[in-house]
Every structure is written in structure tokens, then in C-alpha cells.
Amino acid sequence: MKHVKAINLRAQALEARAKGELPDIYALQMQLPMSCSTVFDPGWEVDGMFGLAGLCQPMENDLYGCSADCWWPAQVPDELVNYPGWSDQCSAAVRDWQKIKFIQGGP
Amino acid sequence: MSRYQLKEAHELVVDGKRYLFGVSTGAILGMDAPAARVVDFLKNRPGVSVQELAAHLESEGETGGTQEALEELVALEVVGSGGAGEWRGEGAEEPKGKGKIASLSACTPAPSHPCTSSSQPRLPFPVRSLVCHIARDCNLRCAYCYAEGGSYGQERALMDPEMTCRSVDFLLRHSGGNRRISFTFFGGEPLLNPQALRAAVQYGRAQEERWGKEIDFSLTTNATLLSEETVRFLSENRIGVTVSLDGPAAINDRMRTYPDGRGSYQSVLPQVRLLLDHHRTRPVAARVTVTRGVGDLGEIFGHLRGLGFSQVGFCPVSTRDARYALSLEDLSSFLEQLCHLAWRCISVRVPEAKGLQEPSFQGLESLEWAGKDLPASDSHPTRSGYNPEEAAGRPLPLSNLANLLRELHRGERRPYPCGAGLGLLGVGVDGEIYPCHRFAGSPDLSLGRIEQGLDLGRQTAFFQRVHSTKRAEKCLECWIRYLCAGGCYFESYVRHGDPFAPNLDYCRWLAEWIEEGLRLYVALAENRPGILMGLLED
Q1: Would you call A49 and B409 a contact, using CB atoms and an 8 Å cutoff?
Q2: Which domains can be identified in chain B, with CATH numbers?
Q3: Nearest CA to CA, how far is B143 from chain A (Å)?
Q4: pLDDT class for B361, splitting at 50, 70, 90?
Q5: Residue B499 near residue B418 (C-beta atoms within 8 A)
Q6: Where is pLDDT greater, at A59 or B109?
Q7: B70: exposed, middle or buried (C-beta count within 10 Å: 0-12, 13-18, 19+)?
Q8: Using CB atoms, which residue from B76, B100, B473 is nearest to A105?
Q9: A32-107 maps to which CATH number?
Q10: Selected catalytic residue, list A62, A69, A78, A96
């Protein structure tokens, strides 16, 4: 890469994946560390720190794909354009899941 | 239209260049000027389009490489091309769409707490390390000992050698696909029970081939009972040894005493020399417990290296007792000295490297990130007794630093603070299994028995409590949360009486230490990658 330099192994792995050198799905075939997602209820997986940031890639990508790129718009509100505040009250899904908003009668 | 926003990252500057540490990825990235401009513009701006970015940079007279830099930042997960959950808008805006935004809680009855659901960790988990108390007794009475003179608050006892062999067997049977597994002899003072040590090693070595596994035996000892014969046995069987020793006599003997109050240093010294001279198959490490007043780490480090220990590690005492526990000033002094020691260890190896600067750290202002109104330290102890020349040999002699650099290199992300209760288990003298060796003697945290095996119900209950007690909630804003993962269960147990309580006492300390490690790592990786690789391989 020209502008961003991958310094450590993790960064180099991300770079390799971006170049298509690593198969995306490979992580799922390995013996994952237990509990990359620790809880599944009520429909929200959370990571070891009760957040959404550290989930294993497919889940994470799906969730963010849902809210931004709108390829599955029924799942979660479009956060970027129409409903930017829908998850503001939910910094910890385990604690705050009831505060997650949803859309009634959308476009 | 794609929109972009910055993901959570910790920024640092080394040798005038800008770097990012991805909080959730663990990736360390260097940025050139165009990449840094993109990052700066995206800060605190949710959902920026390429056009907005380009327009802004054009108005600043800077356009070269913007699109390319943005794409690279997206590929390396610093910038999300979507509504990344890590971004929190500055105050919720009214929805612009036709739909009405509503709260889920207003429409659905609240179920029981989410963590009490049927979701369970995937168990059984293959065991990698077993720490075995072969002696619930000690011949020293170190003032700060969390094990209450080696007894863990129970009747003094030794483990039956047969039970030790069964423990080895337990490890072999429950290690799943792990080919390299480790078995640690612990106490109390494990050398009070040489029969169990020998029996277990002989049994283990005989079983290795049958199981197709390699057992890494190790021992933590106060060294008082080492004999020529024992050292020969340790060396011949490639048993790793860590000696608990706090430095020269004047420092060591303040805490590490015999029951009659005599200091242990003089009687330990000949044994330590014997060990260092004759244990040829594994490096020998010293473990220093840092207590109230801290002392001069440079002097301690220099003394122990001078004796011949290949690595020295510093560990803060585990106690609430105000006579020994570290105060805020102590933690500040400890951190400052450790950072300087780390810097010196590296700069000795790489004297000419650019980017290596004296640590910028200037004392802790508080223990927690949230900040308590406590006075900053004004103590700046002198560092004497450390001869940089002797640090020039391999391996990297400060184990705190060696471990940190390895973690940063791999970009580790931890779902749990350690392997306790999963890949790591402790065994008490009576064969009771605990989440780790430090919990021996806490019956409410037993996870089963060696003879019957792990009690999956108890193990599951332990992790349900880890998940349900919200110990990590306080960590949500912290940039080291995927390196620290909430901190040691036992420290929480000692300080708050609850292994699942939030462990906030070392937050600030740990973050500053990791920051210093990042700076050293980046300086080495950028200037002398060959030397860095050498250090990491040690």
C-alpha cells in the first residue's frame, strides 16, 4: 500500500486479505477461540467486552452491512442517511439492548 | 452513495510520524500525509461522502492521493464504509426518513436478563496449561504473600505423588489438539515435595510419546531448598525455573523472611548461584514482587541480571493490606521506572536507532481513566545499579517488555483477560480444580476434581457470571480493552472480594505501559525490523 503502512502482523494480515491473498471464510474453519461472541440474546451478539466491535468478521460485517450499505435494509435502520441516532443509546448491547430503536412504518 | 467514518483508533506519534492502533483490530498502521489528512477530516464527522472529503481537502489545497489513501484506510479497517457501531453520533438527530424511530422497549415485554439465557460457552475447552499445587506449605513467611504463608488459609499439606501423576494424566486427557502443553509445579514452596515433582516428571516423560505430546514442565520456587541433586534433575529434565527474589539483601529481606523473621537472601544466594551455574537446558528467570515504596527498579534489575538471571519480571503485589499495597504514588513511580528500564533495554540493543526517545511519561494523575481527584506523583527516584552493557545479551531481559512486544506484534485481541477456567486451570493439593492456581482454597470457585474431571456445570456457571456481572461495561470507552479484557479475576477478588467485579485499579497504569510499548515497538519496527524480529523470537 502506498499511503498506509501495515506495521505489525495483524495489520499485515488485514492487508493480505484486502489484496485477496487470504480467503475470507477461513477463520470460521479454524478452531476459533471460544466466545468471540459471548452472548446471543435477544438477537444481538456481543463480544467479550459487551460491545459490538470485536465480533468475528462475518457477523460484524453483516451487521454493519445491514445498517449502512442497505443490502439488507429490513434488518436494521439505515444509520448513515436516515436514522443516524438509532443505536446511540446502546453502547453496551447486554445492558442497553432495550434502547436500540427500530423503524415503524418505513418508506 | 458510500459514506465513510472513522473507526475507533488510538493515535501516536513516533519520530515525527503518525501511527494508528486499531482498537478492535489490534493492527498498528503508519500513515503518510494524505492518509493523515483523511483521518483528520473524518474525526468527529459521521457519514462523510467522498465528495465532501474531496471538497474539503481541495479547499485546503490538498488533494493528492486522497482517494487512494481512503481506500487503503478502509481496507485496513481504520475507516468504515458504513455505520460502524463504534461511532456514536454527537447527539441523536431526528430521523430524516419517513419511518418513525421507536424504542424496542416500549413495544416488547422485557425478558429476563439477556445473560441468563440458554447461551453457553462452547465447552469443554482444550486445556493447555495446568498449574499444580504440590505443596500447600512454605518454609518462608513473606510478609506480602497472598497465599498466607503458602497455606492459602488452610491446613498445611503436601500433594500425594499419585495425585500429581493423575494431574499430569488429566492434562494429557483434556488437552485436545494441543501438542505442546505445560505443567507447572507451584505452591507454597513446591520443593518441599520433591517426591511429587520427580514422580510427575517421570510419569509425564514416559507418557509423552504415547500421547504424541510434549510437556513443558516448569517450577516457581523461592530457591531456598535447591540442592546440587535437584538442580541436576531440573536441568536433565528441561524444567523451566522461575525464582521469586526481590533484589539485593536490603530490599529482598524487608519482605522475604523465614518464620523467625530472618531475611532469606543470604541463605538463598548460594542456591541461586548453583542453579544459574548448572541449569543448562532452560533460561532461568527471576520474579520480583513490587511493594509499597517500590524502591529502585534499576538497582534490582541490575542486581538480578548481575547474578545471571536471563530474564527479570516485575509484578505488583496482590494485597489490600496498606502496609504492602502500592499507593498511587507508588504505581506512578513503578510505571515511570519500568518505562525507563524498557527504553534502556531496547536502546542498549539498538543505540543508533532513530525514533527511540526517552519515555515521555510523567507520572500518573489517577488510577482510572475516568479520573479520580488524586494528587499526581512528584517522586522521581534515581536509577542506579543498572549496567546497560549487561543487557546486551539475549534474550530481552525484561520479561514485562518481552511479553508486551510479542502481544503488540501479533495484534492480540482477547475475549477474556486470561485463560483462567479455559486453557489454564489450577489444581489444589487435594485434587480440587480451580479457574487458576491463585484461587486454590476458594471452594466456591471449584470447577471439579482431578479424579472426576471438570464439572461442566460449574465451569459454565463461572463464565455466565463473567458475562452477566457487567465487569467490562466500564471498559467500553477504553482503547486497550481488547488487550486487557477487564483484568485479572484474582486481583478483583483480592481488592473487591468478587472475582467478577470491575477491575479498575490498574487501568491507567496499564494503558500508559501499553502506550510506551507501542512507541518502542513502532520505533524498532520502522528502524531496525531485523533486531525486532530477533527480540521477538527469543
Answers
A1: no
A2: 3-80 (3.90.930.60), 124-282+418-468 (3.20.20.70)
A3: 36
A4: low
A5: no
A6: A59
A7: buried
A8: B100
A9: 4.10.940
A10: A62
Give the end-to-end CA distance of chain A in Å, rounded to a whole number.
41
What is d(CA B506, CA B501) in angstroms, rounded to the nearest whole number?
13
Cα–Cα distance list, B44 to A4, A96, B10, B39, B40 (Å): 21, 23, 14, 10, 9
**Cβ B34–A3 below 8 Å, yes or no?**
yes
Q: Do B476 and A50 touch (CB under 8 A)?
A: yes
Domain limits of chain A?
1-30, 32-107
Q: How far apart are CA B264 and CA B377, in angstroms?
A: 32
Residue A47 known to be catalytic: no
Residue A45: its pLDDT value, please?
A: 55
Q: If we measure between CA atoms, which residue out of B244, B219, B227 comes closest to residue B278? A: B227
* pLDDT reported for residue A101: 64
| Confidence bin at A34 (pLDDT 50/70/90) | very low
Predicted confidence (pLDDT) at residue B527 exceeds the cutoff of 50: yes
Distance, in Å, from the CA atom of B50 to the CA atom of B64, rounded to the nearest integer, reads 14
The alpha-carbon gap from A24 to the nearest alpha carbon of chain B, in Å, equals 13
Nearest to B319 by CA among B288, B291, B297, B356: B291
CB contact under 8 Å between A80 and B47, yes or no, is: yes
Q: Number of residue pairs across A and B with CB atoms under 8 Å? A: 258
* Residue B328 CB contacts under 8 Å (≥ 6 apart), including other chains: B364, B366, B367, B374, B375, B377
